[in-house]
Amino acid sequence: MADHSIQSAGSTPSRAHAEDSPTCVAVVPIFKGLTLAEQLEVAQVARPTLIERGTTVFRQGESLGKLMVLHSGSVKLMRTLASGHEHLVRVLGAGDFMGEWAFLKGGRAKHTAVTLETTHMCVFDHRDLATVFRTYPSVGLRMLTTLTDRLADTEERLVSAISADVGARLASYLLSLPSVARDSGVFDVQLPIAKKEIAALLDTTPESLSRQLRAFEKGGLIESRGKTIRLLDVDKLLDMAPE
Fold this sequence. Notes:
Layout: H1 15-27, H2 36-43, E1 47-51, E2 56-58, E3 66-72, E4 75-80, E5 86-92, E6 97-98, H3 100-105, E7 112-115, E8 119-125, H4 126-135, H5 137-163, H6 166-176, E9 179-181, E10 187-190, H7 195-201, H8 206-218, E11 222-225, E12 228-231, H9 234-240
Antiparallel strand pairs: 1-8, 2-7, 3-6, 3-8, 4-5, 4-7, 9-10, 10-12, 11-12
Helix pairs in contact: 1-2, 4-5, 6-9, 7-8
């Protein structure tokens, strides 16, 4: 561990703060390379925060001096276009973070963030986060890796939106979700967000998404059980998904 510790500017963590934070820090991939002692040290400058469902965490264009990492729950990031239309950019879940643009570039928030469910976060002031990065360079490297993965995901979605129909985009999305094997060649996936949010991610309407799901069911590709989707014919879904 580093010889010098990280101190939160102007505050001393309470007992509840110190006990709650390590769990939040440990769940975030960018901190998983640290030892438990180092995670406990980082936790001293993390502020555990509970945000209710439907809360606007920050708005596009606002000054943002914090990095927020999700312990549990989910948040949607939206970009308001010049036309006034809101475009869903990404849905974040446990282990994800937001506010990195303002930290790295010093600019204002690029998105509006709204919680989709009650969400627990660890919040870092930028000045404290800079100290974390100086003390533990591996954290910055892991953040860079995550941002690179996000860029690759965005590029794939852009190619899919341009070159593929709704069915192909839906097939690709279902195949990208974490799965649980059932019978031979059959897998279950859980829809992590509401169907209207999935429709926005796939650049289609909720009605078109529902029609495509029904078509998949009628064709024997899937079986829908609420938020659980059983993938019955993965090979055909792979054939449909864009390269």
